[in-house]
Amino acid sequence: MFSTAIRFRLESELGVRVVHCADMQSLCAVVAKQDVEFSLAIVDLNLPGAPDCEALDFLLTHNIRPLVFTGSFGDVTREKILAKGVLDYVVKDSPSAIQQVVVSVDRILASERTRALIVKPSQGCLEQEEGLLRRQRFEVIVAVDGTEALDVLDAERDIDLVLLDLDCPDFEGLLLLAEIHRRYTDMGIRVIGVSGRADDMTAPRFLKAGGDEFIRKPFCADEFTSRLLHLAAIQKRIQALSMAASRDYLTDVYNRRYFFETGKRLVDKAIRRGEKASIAILDIDHFKRLNDTYGHEVGDMVLKDVSRQLKARLGGRHLLARLGGEEFGMLFVDLDLAAAVACCDGLRKELAATPIEADGEPVTITVSIGVAAIEGEEAFDNHLNAADQFLYMAKHGGRNRVFSVLALEATLAARRAAAS
Questions:
Q1: What's the whole-model pTM score?
Q2: Rounded to whole angstroms, how far apart are CA atoms 275 and 255?
Q3: What angle do CA 140, 265, 130 make, to 5 degrees?
Q4: What is the Cα–Cα distance from 416 to 244, expressed in whole angstroms?
Q5: Contact between residue 166 and residue 194 where contact means Cβ atoms under 8 Å apart
């Protein structure tokens, strides 16, 4: 009964593939095939053919992570299986047991995609925290102080959880918490405080300052793991919703809102680190005429095709978004103006050389692009407006070209030379 219900709920609610083994013999046969890499196993301690944890030991021997689901349980058994390194355990002692299994599996699967940063832990605490997190397949990074932690967050764009040890006298954990919120609001990083201080106000101070969770030392391994898995699962759900909300429905590139939110953070980071950055706006030439001539279906096809080529050319290194209509924004990280202009000109040539088919005939698509360097602290809108001004010059100058201050200086120099 349990196995059928669990399989149905895991497949329908979590979308995972489930293989059922009714006894030890079938378990051995499935594992021996080696045609599936299992993320985890839900195992009873008393399986037919394996009455005394043999199935659990077999799974551990084959590096398949087990979640124990059993009716035979007590303190001695609990300590025994936890010492073996199981992921979690659920006891068949209530109507909610199957729900607990589903929740636990969801948390465990989320942890496989979770990156955690541990900041300034004491040695003993580090070993315990890191060991428990790695057992759950978290990817763990350790920073020795707040400065290194911020450097890691700048360099790594997908940190999910930050654990702050608040007990070091020379470490201002609340100041680091405030700086994380100021710099990385759009990343939605979850921050957990860990402390063994006798001061009863440590937890409320941390939580009121914006912390997401607080765990008191010395902590129970079960409690620590459960809290972190719970936060990781919440984080992954929020990220999935945020990703869906950040995409343009037609082209599947980022939308205007995401470009402004993330672009501002990336520009701030570049300026803070003394790195080069450039911004560009691309406009599809004569797009209204194309819509009027061939219809909106072909117009949508052009937008999708241009987006596909831009994504292929820019990859994940630079930020690309559809700003609206036929306009796209591009933020070039670690590229100076000359390199960004060269990249944009390559894009322009590639698009022009790849016509699309409309009503059985090839239609050449050209674009105009304005590019501006990011050289100082200004409102993000101002950087984008500068690129927009150069876009206007590119269109005014005949379209199908890239324009920037470099082109403007070259034009002025040519005019001066001609006048002399």
A1: 0.69
A2: 25
A3: 10
A4: 52
A5: yes
Interatomic CA distance for residues 353 and 336, integer angstroms: 26
Q: Where are the beta strands (DSSP E) in 297-336?
A: 319-324, 327-333
The answer to whether the beta carbons of residues 314 and 350 sit under 8 Å apart is no
The amino acid at residue 71 is G
Q: Which of 204, 213, 127 is nearest to 164 (CA)?
A: 213
18-25 long-range contacts, Cβ below 8 Å, gap at least 24?
Answer: 22/48, 23/47, 23/48, 23/49, 23/50, 24/48, 24/49, 24/50, 24/54, 24/55, 24/58, 25/49
Q: How many residues are given for the chain?
A: 420
Pairwise CA distance, residues 280 & 336, whole Å: 12
CA distance 355 to 363: 5
Contact in structure between 120 and 97 (CB atoms under 8 Å):
no
Neighbours of 194 (CB within 10 A): 24
Cβ atoms 20, 7 nearer than 8 A: yes
Encode pLDDT of 91-122 as tens digits.
887 778 888 888 888 877 777 778 899 998 77
How far apart CA 109 and CA 106 sit, in angstroms, is 5
Q: Kind and range of the H or E element at 402?
A: strand 402-403
Helices (H), strands (E): how many in the chain? Answer: 16, 15
The pLDDT tens digits for 4-55 are: 888 899 888 888 889 899 889 999 998 888 777 888 899 988 888 888 888 8
Are 285 and 400 a contacting pair, CB within 8 Å?
Answer: yes
> Distance (Å, rounded) from C-alpha 179 to C-alpha 184?
8
Q: Which helix (H) or strand (E) holds 236?
A: helix 221-245
* 3, 21 contact by CB (below 8 A): no
Q: Which helix (H) or strand (E) holds 42?
A: strand 41-43
338 burial level (CB within 10 Å; 0-12, 13-18, 19+) = middle
Q: Which amino acid makes up residue 12? A: S
How far is it, in rounded angstroms, from Cα 281 to Cα 263? 13
Residue type, 146: G
Query: Hey, is 142 helix, strand or coil?
Result: strand
3-class DSSP assignment, residue 53: coil
Smallest CA-to-CA distance from 391 within 319, 340, 327 is with: 327
Could you give the CA distance from residue 142 to residue 162 in angstroms, rounded to a whole number? 10
Measured in whole angstroms, how far is the alpha carbon of residue 86 from the centre of its chain? 27
- Distance, in Å, from the CA atom of 333 to the CA atom of 328, rounded to the nearest integer, reads 16
